From TrEMBL:
Residues 621-730 form the Molybdopterin dinucleotide-binding domain. This is Molybdopterin-dependent oxidoreductase. The keyword Metal-binding applies. It comes from the Bacteria. The keyword Acetylation does not apply. Residues 51-505 form the Molybdopterin oxidoreductase domain.
């Protein structure tokens, strides 16, 4: 390959890279005002210790057939591509003809890599659709509770996909009240790419225009605090109580916008009865919330008054709903914003996920992007995404989801490409057991992740550095040529080529490939997109010109968008798509479901994550949030991620007083125990962490090489987190919070071997 610097894109930004004698050199894009430090992980893409270099088949499966042996603990046998492809094709054919396409689980949730063509899930889904379909998964780990709840309350997903923009807020918002913050670590990222990181700059402009920020979070660094800001440490999983009390103050002091509530909302009276204790005998006043939230009543009252006297944006991070009864804080925040009556005003109302990604609040393009079509999936079966282990362990059993009684399908074959369930799912011990159930597991991965280690057939695939693609995110104003920089590592192939080979063996080659190669597809996707893009925005450049130029600026982004403006101005002419056409503070639909874990209006249900905080066997609440130094588990072995580790383990932050009470010093290895499992981590003392709270990022690769020492010796918090849904309404993931105890660990020092496949194999 040439060693000139070529353009590329990642979920955390544009860069150019070149292969130098001492490794890959990565340079952030010159036009990015705030490039991400995560680019420092990219050279590790080519690290052969972590890469899968050949196709492999698990010994037990190869010798004794589907289902045999111990998935995850068995050794792998290197095979030729032809052999591996023959085995996979035969097995797919056997499962589909014997059990039907429903028996193939192809949900394959995960972020994969940037790039419109080599998007691993699209590749897999198109391939499986050519074969007659697959059982899919619905919604996300990011905001599964929101995706189910929002249509009931506001009639759609506008808060997630078309929120009021930063441009509007930086001009108009006087007070940002940020539940869960606007974490700078998170707005580095946007799915599909982010050519310009604009959020930090937008916050600066808002501040210059006089905006003030109130951070409500157990962690002080969920916002880059300035002297005028206020940090209100809150007990994890208690925000709903706080929001209810804020509503109560607004009601009690008649600061609520009665007119807005009357004209735009359904159920205010019943909700007010609940706030005042008329329905359950408990007044949700500031004193009540103070005990639950760990905030004094005067602070709550003062905050409510301040919110009522300012143009206020109340935003909840997605993390709030990734916990037990995760529907409640989001719903309560909408009720709170409705009480304030600023929904639909520029810079007022509620937001959900500002800062959760770099795209949230960036201007959206009013047209689609080039797409690799997935085709039609005739299989109707699906699961809410986080019910994967339940599905595998309980085939045929019924469960509730969003008002429907559903049955888990009987999975015989799992096919995963572009995700890492042994990163993203909860209770990984249970997931290992669940992955032991089906007859066959096929995984495409560049790296020896725990998911690859739980496969029977492992196909080594390329990273973006080793292929050509088109890069563009949905809130992005640039489309870039992602040019191949390096030769495929080992024997790895593009996902597309693996599926092309399989489709030939299965008789659907033409349907899957349309007889096009990589560049042929890029040209087709680009030209199809150009043809349907509205005239005024259509780029002049044809594909060869675009490819030569390397970059297009996309036009038309809706920088001045205000969410629900039309509805606010005229709710009769522009009703919401809810049964009442209004914001449903009370939902009769949800009422009819009769779920005690998701009542018909926002309610305090006392999540186990916060009940009895500071006492009992698991006195601490561990915040297992998204990582600062990587994207999920991706490139955990990269330089930037590796530099954060403590004695090679994932850092866990504790308040100095909580550490002192446990004789834990900075840099100690600690044992973290939950009801579910135990793991090792490396202690960091930090008073940015509230009392009785600890924090560890997700994404340390699951290292189960020394089960006599701990379930994970590296620090993947998903070994600890219980595998329960938010509620029967959404069945969303609850991985954000888990109750733990932490102690200094002076025992056997099992090394972390997970990033080096040779070291791992020796350990087995
Ligand atoms: N406890 C806890 N758990 C959580 C969360 C939490 O807050 N707390 N957050 C959750 C959230 S919001 C999310 S979105 C999930 C994220 O979960 P995932 O999206 O599953 O995590 P990633 O590490 O991004 O996994 C992507 C995988 O795809 C691989 N990959 C990259 N490019 C390619 C490619 O081109 N082809 C193929 N075949 N593979 C590729 C990568 O190597 C990586 O292993 O985690 C969830 N898990
Ligand atoms: N660097 C980086 N950025 C990322 C990602 C990544 O892996 N790395 N992942 C991306 C993805 S897929 C997603 S979905 C988003 C996730 O976006 P979020 O879900 O918003 O992100 P998290 O970091 O999990 O949580 C944000 C903060 O919420 C706070 N928090 C947790 N529980 C509570 C609570 O009960 N109450 C209050 N008030 N605060 C609480 C925590 O202190 C935490 O730091 O991030 C995206 N951005
Ligand atoms: Mo996510």
């Amino acid at each position: 390959m040439p060693n000139e610097a070529l353009g590329n894109s990642s979920h955390w930004g544009l860069f150019t890279a070149s292969v130098e004698s001492d490794g890959l050199r990565v340079i952030p894009d010159a036009d990015d005002p705030d490039p991400s430090a995560l680019l420092g992980n990219i050279p590790a893409s080519l690290d052969t210790r972590a890469r899968i270099l050949h196709p492999y088949v698990r010994r037990g499966w190869l010798n004794d057939g589907p289902g045999a042996g111990a998935r995850g603990d068995d050794e792998f046998v290197e095979v030729t591509w032809d052999h591996a492809l023959d085995l996979a094709a035969r097995e797919l054919e056997r499962v589909r003809s014997t059990f039907g396409n429903t028996a193939i689980f192809g949900g394959s949730y995960g972020w994969a890599s940037a790039g419109r063509f080599h998007h691993a899930q699209s590749q897999l889904h198109r391939f499986l659709n050519c074969l007659g379909g697959y059982t899919r998964s619905r919604h996300t780990y990011s905001h599964g509770a929101s995706e189910t709840l929002l249509p009931h309350v506001v009639g759609g997903l506008e808060p997630l996909y078309e929120p009021t923009t930063w441009q509007v807020m930086s001009e108009h918002t006087e007070l940002f009240v940020c539940f869960g913050g606007i974490p700078a670590k998170n707005f580095q990222i946007n799915a599909g790419g982010v050519s310009k990181h604009i959020v930090r700059g937008a916050i600066d402009v808002a501040r210059d225009n006089g905006a003030e920020f109130v951070l409500i979070s157990p962690l002080a660094d969920d916002l880059e605090l300035q002297p005028r800001d206020q940090w209100i440490p809150v007990n994890p999983a208690s925000d709903t109580a706080l929001m209810l009390a804020l509503c109560w103050v607004l009601l009690d002091e008649k600061l609520w916008d009665k007119e807005f509530l009357d004209d735009h909302c359904a159920g205010t009276e019943r909700f007010a009865d609940y706030l005042c204790g008329r329905s359950d005998g408990v007044v949700k006043d500031a004193r009540w919330a103070a005990q639950i939230c760990g905030i004094d009543a005067a602070t709550i009252t003062a905050l409510a008054r301040r919110m009522a006297s300012s143009r206020t944006m109340a935003t909840t991070s997605w993390s709030l709903q990734r916990a037990s009864f995760g529907e409640q804080p989001l719903w309560a925040s909408i009720a709170l914003a409705a009480f304030l009556g600023q929904i639909g005003l520029p810079g007022g109302g509620f937001g959900h996920g500002y800062g959760s990604t770099g795209g949230m609040g960036a201007a959206k393009l009013p047209y689609d992007l080039p797409t690799f079509r997935q085709g039609y999936n005739p299989v109707r079966e699906f699961i809410p995404v986080a019910r994967i282990a339940d599905m595998l362990l309980h085939p045929g059993e019924s469960y509730e989801f969003n008002g429907t009684t559903m049955n888990y399908p009987d999975t015989r074959l799992i096919y995963w490409a572009g995700g890492n369930p042994f990163h993203h799912h909860q209770d990984l011990g249970r997931l290992r057991h669940a992955f032991g159930q089906p007859e066959t597991v096929i995984v495409h991965e560049p790296f020896w992740t725990a998911t690859a280690r739980h496969a029977d057939i492992v196909f080594p695939v390329t990273t973006t550095l080793e292929r050509n693609d088109i890069g563009c995110g949905r809130f992005d104003e640039a489309m870039v040529a992602m040019r191949q920089i390096a030769s495929p590592v080992g024997e790895s192939m593009n996902d597309y080529d693996v599926f092309s080979h399989l489709s030939k063996r299965l008789g659907v080659h033409e349907e899957f490939t349309e007889n096009l190669d990589e560049l042929g597809w890029l040209e087709k996707m680009y030209e199809q997109w150009r043809a349907v893009t509205p005239d005024q925005y259509r780029p002049r450049e044809d594909f060869p010109q675009f490819w030569e130029k390397g970059r297009l600026d996309l036009r038309g982004a809706m920088a001045g968008h205000v969410m629900y403006q039309d509805f606010r101005n005229d709710p009769i002419a522009h009703p919401l798509a809810t049964p009442s056409g209004l914001i449903e503070i009370v939902s009769d639909t949800i009422d009819d479901f009769g779920y005690d874990d998701c009542p018909p209006h926002p309610a305090w249900l006392s999540p186990p994550e916060v009940a009895g905080l500071g006492s009992g066997r698991y006195p601490l609440c561990l915040v297992a949030n998204n990582p600062k130094t990587r994207l999920h588990s991706q490139l955990d072995h990269g330089a930037y991620s590796a530099a954060s580790k403590v004695q090679g383990r994932e850092p866990i932050r504790l308040h100095p007083d909580d550490a002192a009470a446990r004789s834990i010093n900075e840099g100690d290895v600690v044992l973290v125990r939950s009801e579910t499992a135990q793991m090792l981590a490396g202690a960091v003392l930090d008073d940015n962490v509230a009392r009785h709270v600890a924090q560890i990022s997700t994404g340390a690769w699951y290292d189960y090489s020394a089960p006599n020492v701990a379930d994970c010796v590296h620090g993947n918090p998903n070994v600890l987190a219980p595998d329960v849904g938010t509620s029967r309404l959404a069945e969303g993931s609850t991985g954000q919070l888990v109750r733990v105890q932490i102690e200094r660990y002076d025992g056997d020092r099992a090394p972390v071997v997970v990033h080096d496949h040779h070291a791992w194999s020796r350990q087995q």
